[in-house]
Amino acid sequence: MPKPIARSKTRKSVSKRFKITGTGKVRRQHASRRHLLSSKSAKRKRHMAKSAEVHKTDTARIKANLPFA
Q1: How far is CA 51 from the centre of its chain?
Q2: How many domains in the chain?
Q3: Is residue 3 domain-resident?
Q4: C-beta separation of 5 from 63 below 8 A
Q5: Is 23 inside any structural domain?
Q6: Within the chain, what is the greatest distance between any pair of CA atoms?
Q7: d(Cα 36, Cα 7) in Å, to the nearest integer?
Q8: N or C: which end of the chain has fewer CB within 10 A?
Q9: For residue 19, what are the domain limits?
Q10: Residue 47's CATH number
Q11: How many CA atoms does the CB half-sphere of 32 hold within 13 Å?
């Protein structure tokens, strides 16, 4: 019997933290929005609520862990 081809699994921790857009960009959420929010301004919290794009040097590493995305 021939050996089966090794498949790369999706890293579930990566799939929960990052999303890939239709054009192939990787999006992430901002840090520091879980607790101690009373000391942060409304503008700062509002901007942290939006997703940000991952830097281009990190996209290849993230996509390697998301083979089916």
Answers
A1: 9
A2: 1
A3: no
A4: no
A5: yes
A6: 64
A7: 42
A8: N
A9: 12-64
A10: 4.10.410.60
A11: 9
Strand locations in the chain (E): 19-20, 26-28, 52-53
Indicate whether 7 belongs to any domain: no
Spatial CA neighbour of 56 closest among 17, 14, 24: 24
**What does the pLDDT average to over 3-26?**
94
C-alpha distances out from residue 43 to 49, 50, 63, Å: 10, 12, 32
Q: Give the Cα separation of 34 and 49 in Å (integer).
A: 11
pLDDT higher for 1 or 23?
23
Which pTM was predicted? 0.83
47 located within any domain:
yes
DSSP-assigned beta bridge partners for residue 28: 52
The answer, yes or no, to whether residue 52 has pLDDT greater than 80, is: yes
Q: Which of 64, 68, 62, 67 is nearest to 18 (CA)?
A: 62
